[in-house]
Design a protein that fits this description.
Helix content: 40-55%
Largest sheet: 4 strands, antiparallel
Strand content: 15-25%
Order of helices and strands: HHEEHEEHHHH
Radius of gyration: 20 Å
Number of strands: 4
Strand order of the largest sheet: 2-1-3-4
Amino acid sequence: MPIEEALMEFAGIDIPKEEIEKGVPFVSFVVKEGEDAVFMEPLPLSMADGTLKGRTEAGSEVLYRVDYLRGGSEKFAAGILMVGERPEKFLELLEHNISSGNGKADAAGLYGYLEVHLTLCALERLALCEISLMEKEEAGSPDYREADSSYYREVLSYVEAGRRCLNDSISGFSLPPFPQRSVFMAEWYRSRKGKQ
């Protein structure tokens, strides 16, 4: 598509309010290809992170836009990335551009914020996978499955609290303490023993 058309799509992005309120940033791209460009629809960060890999050529420019919450308000920021010799995921490419001194890469200073959000997304995926696994009888004894599911529900609560901390802060953030598995499990079995 012509670059002008891709940029119009890019500028007119409207993420539904209910999606933004889930707390995960959305990322969209315009990849320049000679005289034309490709517009990539907004996706949640965890999905968008891998969309550039293998779809860009060395030396090409990528315009990105992040729609996110900051201080409890909807915001967006944009940057321009230069693609290197090897294909990279979005955050890898962003980090490489920042360390290379590309001042247009992260003018809003979002890298750390996005990195933590991506980690929370990975924790959420892991917890949901573990909870699903614990629904199967072959995953262990009923007590073990219940304890493990309880722990990963606690991890999901941590993810939600972490997102609130990131999205409600105006600058800087501190996450709540991560639920340590050994401490959680010991307390879970101790409270269970006390009820019997």
